[in-house]
Amino acid sequence: MVLETERLILRPFVETDVADLYAYARDPRVGPDAGWQPHGSVEESRQIIGTVFAAPNVFAVVDKVSGRVIGSAGFVGRHQTMLPGPDEEIGYALSPEFWGRGLIPEAVRELLHYGFEDLRLAAIWCGHYDFNDKSRRVVEKCGFRWRFTGQTWDEPMAEERTELHYALTRAE
What we know:
Blueprint: E1 3-4, E2 8-11, H1 18-25, H2 31-34, H3 42-50, E3 58-63, E4 69-75, E5 87-94, H4 103-118, E6 123-129, H5 133-141, E7 145-154, E8 159-169
Helix pairs in contact: 1-3
């Protein structure tokens, strides 16, 4: 499955994306705000492509101009029970080099269309840690509605964090 927006191509990750993934995933401004440690090596990025990013409906975010993989976006396989299902959660990350251009909201809007129209989801979730203002802005721009706030143990970061959860239903 390949999705396309005005400025982006969303497609499955392939092994040859490893250098681009490592280039942004090693940056300490990216992973910790999303709950994962910066990648320590190209081999770690290769492993993530073969495991986490090999899951269905997880996409490499490709900049149309440069052809580079500049982020990831997709459905992460986590579910909530407070709204009707089927449901899915969206996750995303972006290279700091491309921050501030509205690219992740563009990708998320395409994923919302894909999720509701093609996957026939009834609800789509997303969340962010209370300190992650960049992710909060994505949520706001895409029209998600706040549902609840909770405490969670972030294993990779070895700390308890406050997470805000939002959702959109097909009807909304």
